[in-house]
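Hypothesis: this fold can be encoded by more than one sequence.
Test: take the structure tokens below, design a sequence, compare later.
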């Protein structure tokens, strides 16, 4: 048996590293052997080393020109490197010589799909299926095409057809899992990913399983999966951050915070925060002049603003860089802090704080190592008192006797699965809106006119909307509106954070699994971040009615108690 045959045998038996070593020696000894170069390229292709494969196969084609199998392998390698136009040119040559090459049609479809040519990709996949009916490779192509068109139901159908023809097919399992995630069927997605991870327990597959487990709320299992992945890539900042979400959700704060900080590793906006001197790894010392910068959305910035009193207590001079809409509210609430809106380049005032910088949320690792570290205080933000009083009087007008003002917020409107899971359409709030003796005030941002009209008509109650307050633009005005309330009832949103930060009574309605954010932790009826908050949780996914019933009963008691107050 010659060396070429031995290399081929190693390749066919899956001993790819040995095959590569022997083939490398072979081409070094016989540099003009086209078959050896072709096999070396094929080995690299199998190992996912697409750039090497493309180079080896290009050399093979100079020695054995117009060989369809070699051309096809090089087209596949070019596709793997993202050089789709070059791959298509080579696939065209393959099909010219072999019009019945189904694999060439599949890769033609994949390249077209990568280039955004969905219609032409469908034609290629159809051609492959005509040549080889129910061929899993072509069915997977259609699954990918369907996902690109945001048609997860069709994608799942194609992936399942592929699995019927070839059970345990890895790519089909992962496509089916992806489609189920898109459909919000995380338990089913997890089952597909679990089977895939059993076949190939690599980082990519195990990470998909871990993420699905996390979305189901199975955080202990997710941590186990993430740890398995981290054994293979221990320096992965993305995996460490992903694992931190489960650690924090479980209340394992000391473990979770350092990994949570990894979300900023390699992120461009982190490196742009240069004002304030070198990064701080420990609490600032008395007399230092330092910059804290807030990241993430409005809700998170409000939540982590709870750390500002702890930072002020260090006796360091502090500047805070935050969303411009929050700057007036935070400046009023913390006059000791120099609050600057985030701008590019950074606000000039930040140059006066040269001793260090840190992300505000990362200060939680210094001051919130366990639940005992959370202070019990009646809010930490201060709304405009004049505007608050004026809005309260405005909303109370028209009633012979005073009524409690109940602010309501029900959705996040970006259309993502996370937002859909967190949202509770106003049309389903009937039992709450039927509670007599209170005035409901709309705290929901965005265009709510149609929803308000429908709910008001159905429930037979007037919901006050105030066009002078726009939460998307004027958060200081919104804070005053929230402060004017006697109670806020909200899904997981900035409205809930605002009410909690102001110390107003707030009832937050939470989903189970996806949409249940880590900072609400698990199984608690209270929030350590906001002592004035009460949490109402779904008993199981997608079951809001028990939550609504519990809230409506609690609201009856609240109104009765409010009336009986001195």
């Amino acid at each position: 048996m010659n060396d070429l045959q031995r290399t081929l045998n190693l390749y066919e038996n899956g001993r790819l590293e040995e095959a590569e070593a022997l083939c490398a020696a072979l081409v070094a000894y016989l540099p003009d052997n086209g078959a050896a170069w072709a096999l070396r390229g094929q080995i690299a292709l199998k190992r996912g080393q697409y750039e090497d494969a493309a180079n080896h196969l290009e050399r093979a084609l100079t020695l054995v020109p117009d060989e369809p199998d070699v051309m096809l392998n090089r087209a596949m390698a070019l596709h793997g490197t993202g050089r789709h136009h070059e791959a298509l040119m080579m696939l065209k040559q393959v099909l010219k010589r072999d019009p019945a090459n189904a694999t060439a049609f599949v890769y033609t479809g994949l390249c077209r799909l990568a280039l955004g040519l969905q219609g032409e990709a469908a034609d290629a996949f159809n051609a492959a299926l005509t040549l080889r009916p129910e061929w899993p490779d072509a069915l997977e192509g259609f699954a990918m095409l369907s996902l690109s068109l945001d048609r997860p139901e069709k994608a799942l159908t194609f992936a399942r057809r592929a699995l019927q023809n070839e059970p345990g097919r890895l790519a089909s399992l992962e496509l089916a899992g992806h489609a189920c995630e898109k459909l919000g069927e995380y338990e089913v997605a997890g089952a597909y990913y679990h089977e895939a991870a059993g076949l190939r327990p690599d980082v990519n597959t195990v990470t998909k399983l871990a993420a699905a487990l996390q979305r189901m709320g199975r955080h202990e299992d997710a941590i186990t999966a993430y740890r398995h992945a981290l054994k293979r890539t221990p320096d992965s900042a993305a995996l460490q951050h992903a694992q931190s979400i489960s650690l924090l959700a479980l209340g394992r704060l000391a473990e979770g915070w350092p990994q949570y900080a990894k979300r900023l590793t390699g992120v461009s906006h982190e490196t742009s925060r240069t004002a304030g001197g070198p990064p701080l790894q420990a609490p600032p010392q008395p007399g230092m002049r330092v910059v804290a910068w807030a990241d993430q959305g409005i809700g998170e910035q409000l939540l982590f603003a709870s750390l500002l009193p702890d930072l002020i207590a260090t006796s360091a001079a502090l500047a805070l860089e935050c969303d411009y809409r929050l700057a007036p509210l935070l400046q009023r609430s913390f006059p000791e802090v120099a609050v600057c809106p985030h701008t590019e380049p950074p606000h000039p005032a930040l140059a006066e704080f040269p001793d260090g910088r840190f992300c505000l949320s990362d200060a939680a690792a210094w001051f919130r190592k366990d639940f005992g570290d959370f202070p019990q205080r009646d809010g930490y933000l201060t709304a405009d008192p004049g505007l608050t009083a004026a809005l309260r009087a405005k909303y109370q007008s028209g009633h012979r006797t005073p009524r409690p003002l109940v602010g309501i917020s029900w959705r996040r409107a970006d259309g993502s699965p996370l937002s859909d899971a967190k949202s509770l359409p106003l049309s389903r709030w009937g039992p709450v809106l039927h509670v007599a003796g209170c005035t409901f005030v709309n705290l929901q941002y965005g265009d709510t006119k149609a929803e308000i009209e429908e709910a008001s008509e159905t429930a037979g109650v007037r919901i006050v909307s105030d066009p002078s307050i726009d939460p998307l633009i004027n958060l200081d005005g919104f804070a005053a509106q929230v402060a004017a309330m006697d109670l806020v009832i909200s899904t997981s949103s900035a409205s809930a954070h605002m009410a909690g930060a102001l110390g107003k009574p707030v009832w937050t309605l939470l989903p189970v699994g996806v949409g249940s954010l880590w900072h609400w932790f698990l199984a608690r009826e209270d929030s350590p971040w906001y002592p004035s908050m009460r949490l109402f949780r779904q008993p199981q996914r997608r079951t809001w009615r028990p939550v609504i019933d519990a809230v409506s009963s609690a609201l009856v008691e609240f109104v009765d108690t409010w009336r009986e107050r001195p």
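The first strand starts at residue 289 and ends at 293. The two ends are 100 Å apart (CA to CA).
Hypothesis status: open.
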